[in-house]
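Regression report. Comparing outputs from two consecutive submissions.

Submission 1:
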Amino acid sequence: MNEISAPNASKYAQIIEAAVAEFQEKGFAAASMDRISRQAEVSKRTLYKYFESKENLFRSIVTELSSRFAEVLEIRYEKGRDVREQLTELAWAEGRILMLPDVMAMSRMVISEILRNPTLAEQAQGKLDKTASFIDMLREAAADGQLQIDDPEQAGREFIGLIKARAFWPLLFSGTVLSHQEMADTINNSVEMMMRRYGPDTA
């Protein structure tokens, strides 16, 4: 992503929005920088000032999407603190982002493109997968005696999978997002299932 000054942030956002729509409709190979500049209502010179190439523009969208989930990476397990509260906090860090329409639009574009282009898929995967944060929390909670988990990696994937099964995958191509109450129900149910499966009182 290129450095931009605050006064030009709106132009940058316009270009990203136009590029998301263009890539989604035409695919990466057929996408046109000319159409993107027209849709964003900026000159080609401005477009290329921010993004030297179509490849750079696509990578910038992946980086922008990844940066939205930065809050998930910042949450760390706190020894001795109630584990249910911590799991709920981590789930909301993910859930709040999944309630943003522009995040879903970018996700839809990236996923549709990486299905067509394995090279782009490999480049994007590492930046977009935040499962490690869930795995780390569950591993540390188990070491602290608050959960009983033999395989934290599997448990972490189960946890994030419970959230995305309701809040991401069914909505990915519909253009909709969960309401706050729907997300709250999804998170509460997901945390409850994790506690019933891995809580300290489970046999």
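Submission 2:
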Amino acid sequence: MRRVLSGLAAFAAGSMLLVSGTQANDSVTVASKIDTEGAVLGQLIIQRLQQGGIQTEDRLQLGATNIVRQALLSGEIDLYPEYTGNGAFFFDMTDSDVWHDAARAYETVRERDAENDLAWLTPAQANNTWAMSVRGDLAREHGLESLDDLARYLAEGGEFKFAASAEFVDSPQALPAFQQAYGFELSGDQLLVLSGGNTAATMRAAAQQTSGVNAAMTYGTDGGLHALDLVVLEDTRGVQPVYQPAPVVRQEVLEAHPEIAELLRPLFESLDLETLQALNGQVAVEGRDPRQVAEEYLAELRE
């Protein structure tokens, strides 16, 4: 479920950074968005800070992006996990190309939010953006790992039927952008358009091979991907903006608790795509408590 970390020793050492009496007595209020991934990331943050001796207040699953963002800016909360690509909307930069490159997106949002007295800490490598995913058996049989591979497979006449929402099929930023960048075009017979379809519906269609579907519109870290054996095809040409999750903390709080950055760094470095898919899947598919999922994962990292 996770990769072996070269920085695992540093993660363990992070727990020893604090000595009695060195941290402020006030607690850090941790929030998250209302979705499954927000609950998982929020629990990981809370429990990791508590392991480091920092008292926390739980405001997880506070609301949608605009609600949580405003709560951070107003000082109602102190820290929450946000996505780098949302900087495009925070700073009215939706037309900028920086959001298609992970490093540039992170540096841009970090620099811009510094003006708001907010600090972006180490991001995860996982990318929770719009994606095209295929059944695992199809991927393994035909060596499909990227959208370049998909273009080759389609050019060779491979069987393919894709489940997606009308928005994904019609939006210039979604399927048309993928087709233009990778040089393929899906016919009407190769599409199953689900009216108002969300990723839960499209993934289910692929998993059950509804009407011959063997691929689906997804988000990169959807919890059902791992459980349903669906493989995200890598967007090697950067068609979609990058949405890497990262902790965002008020600068005042980070100055009071400078150890926060080092406590969370190895945790977020460990969250690659497959790991976050698996953690989300335990909650979204298996119905497990995010608190327990986070506790078990942190115990694995400390072994």
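Expected: both submissions complete independently.
Actual: both completed, but the second showed a warning that disappeared on reload.
Relevant detail on submission 2: The radius of gyration is 20 Å.
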